[in-house]
Amino acid sequence: MTSIIDAVRDDTAESPLVHHPMVVVHDVRKSYGQHEVLHGIDLSVAAGEVAVVLGASGSGKSTLLRCINQLERVNSGYIAIDGDIIGYRRSGDTLYELRERDVLRQRVHVGMVFQNFNLFPHLTALENVAEAPRSALGKSRRQAEELGREFLAKVGLADRADDYPRRLSGGQQQRVAIARALAMEPKVMLFDEPTSALDPELVNEVLDVMQALAEAGTTMIVVTHETGFAREVADTVVFMDDGLIVESGTVAQVFDAPTQERTASFLAKVL
Fold first, then answer.
1. How far apart are CA 81 and CA 192, in angstroms?
2. Residues 87, 95: Cα–Cα separation, whole Å
């Protein structure tokens, strides 16, 4: 059996990522035991672009994000962020698999916002945002708190810095989670259904922050069911089904003139 390192070496021999997009997902496959969840995913996202990923539950959307963020190791293919192949180090024509601590260093370049906030309940909003810059980036307490206040202000929560998560609404907690990811100054932001755990009246406050990030040129890959947000913000819309990218294109191409029956059927149910 060809090793994943051999596969990555073979794949990159013809495309050395010299003029690379910010995110490249190339022929990525991911299995859990005998069950293959991703069946050879190809995706390219340019710097400053917003790619919105749509699809039914179980289509592989969240697994794709977790692979990009190296929370899951791929079985074959490769993922590159800003030209660097995630999980590997290149020396000449040879690729070496990285140790976990080195993978963690790569992961700081990828911010991720989950469905359920994942804030530390015993830390204030400011402490939640400042923790990673201190522990992962080696910032001093003062530097980390300055960053924390800066990014809390960006998400409209400068006045809630000293509040604990239990005193914040769901929308406010998710905005703290966004600020926490931004404080690492990542090269790409991943959002995994960021509004799915929110009451309907709180959804827009999170989407407004995400739209502002898009307008500021943040590279984003967003898994969401919010089709209105996708129409407004997406540069590229990707439709996934059963571990495959079935269709991708501009908003007009995918929403208004889908070429695949599975895409059309899904959109007819959600639009």
1. 18
2. 10
Question: How would you label 216-236 residue by residue, b for 16+ Cβ within 10 Å and e otherwise?
Answer: eebbbbbbbebbebbeebbeb
Distances, alpha carbon 104 to alpha carbons 108, 128, 200, in Å: 7, 19, 35
- pLDDT of 1 reads 35
Helix (H, G, I), strand (E, B) or coil at 72: coil
* Exposed/middle/buried for residue 237 (C-beta within 10 Å: 0-12, 13-18, 19+): buried
Token pair recorded at residue 77: 């293919």
How much is the pLDDT for 8? 54
**Which pLDDT belongs to residue 10?**
56
Low-confidence ranges of the chain (pLDDT < 70): 1-19
pTM more than 0.85: yes
Phi, psi torsion values for 157, nearest 5 degrees: -125, 30
Nearest-angstrom CA–CA distance, 181 and 111? 5
Token pair listed for 242: 């059963």
User: Can you give the pLDDT at residue 262?
Assistant: 96
Q: Which two tokens stand for residue 87?
A: 């999980």
Coil, strand or helix at 194: coil
Helix axes 125-135, 141-154, angle to 10 degrees: 130
**Beta-ladder partners of 63:** none
Is residue 76 within 8 Å of residue 1, measured between CB atoms? no
Taken as a whole, the chain contains a residue count of: 271
pLDDT at position 6, please? Answer: 58
With contact defined as beta carbons under 8 Å apart, do 225 and 270 qualify? Answer: yes
